[in-house]
Prior knowledge:
- This protein is mainly alpha-helical.
- It is 52% helix and 9% strand.
- The chain has 7 helices and 3 strands; from the N terminus they run ααααβααββα.
- The protein is elongated and about 65 Å long.
- It starts with 9 loop residues before the first helix and ends in a 24-residue tail after the last helix.
Amino acid sequence: MPYCRSHMNSSSYDTLSSVDGCAVPVVDAARVKDVLERMPPEDEVIDTADIFDLLSDPNRLRLLVAMIDGELCVCDLAAVTGMSESATSHALRLLRAHRVVSARRNGRRAYYRLADSHVRMLLDLGFTQHTGERPGESPQPHLAGVRSAAHPERI
């Protein structure tokens, strides 16, 4: 349970406040300076947060996992994910606008694929941290046959 004033008596809250509170604005000025110099510009932080926000939607994540093995058209992506074609197209537009996926046209059909190996690395990291397995190495039927991150050139 998070520390909340309503769940603590007065003395425990005061102790916690004194531990968490800073009596001075900066304790380790050299370290703060180093971190500030490494900090990406605000627009890059916002763009990256937007990417993680996109990846937080289970349907969009399913679409990305479906494309790990290569490109698929909207109809096939809808069939694989159980989404309507309209919802699939909308999700793909968002992913494409943020350069997470790319598309190629063949007549009236659009084929989507992961934009680059960085997207695959994010998926690998996410699944490895959560399940202990990479999507390409998972015994789960919905992820079977997917290539591992050891071969990002195959995306």
